[in-house]
Amino acid sequence: MHLRKKLGCLHAHHSNIEYIEQAFQNIEKVELVHFVDPGLIQQVSKGTEGLAFKVKEQLEWMESCNMDAILITCTNYIALLEEEQLELSIPIIKIDEPFFDTICEEKRPQTILFTNPETVEGTMNRLQQYALLHEKSINAEVKVIDNTFELIMQGKKEAYNNAIRQTLHHLAEEQRQILVAQLSMVEAARQFEKESTLTITHPLKSLAKFVVKSIE
Question: Distance between CA atoms of 142 and 72, rounded to whole angstroms?
Fold first, then answer.
C-alpha cells in the first residue's frame, strides 16, 4: 500500500480552498493540507518591501509540518517568491505554470482576465519569463474587471461571480480565446460555460495532473 503524499496548499484567501479540493477530488494519492494567510494580500497594495521574506518564512513553516510538496495558489505570492533564495528540501509547485503552458500553446488571439489589478504585473512578468525559457510566443492581451476584486474579499461571492460572468458574455462577441487568471474566478467561468457554448481556460484545468507528476 502506497502512502498518500501530503500537499501543503498556500492560499491568500480561504475561498480558494474549495477550488483546490474540487481539482483533486479524484486523486487518491494526494492528501491536501491548507494554509491561509489573507494578511499578505492586503499588504501588497502598500508595497512589497519585506513581504518576500514573509512568504519564505511561511513556506519554511509549511515544510516543517511534514509536507511532501507545497502548492502556491496565489500569483502574488509566486511573484514575491522570485525575490528570495529558497532552500527547501521538497518541491514547490506554482499554480500558474501549467496555466502558462496552455497560454503558450494556444495560437489564437487570447484575452487574459483579472479582477485584482495588483496581480497583473507579477503574473505577466512570469508568463513572459516562462515563454522565453521554453522558446514559446504569446498572443494575448490583458483586461482587468475594475472594481470587482473587493467583492470577494468582502465575502460577496455571488456579486463577484455575476460581475465576471457579465464581462465574459460581453467578451464572447470578440471571437478570442478567453482565460481567467485567478483561482477566485474559476466558479464564474464554470457558470458561464454552462450558459454558453464557449470554453474558458482557467488555472485548474491541467493542475492536478501536473502536481501528481511533480511529486511522484
Answer: 22
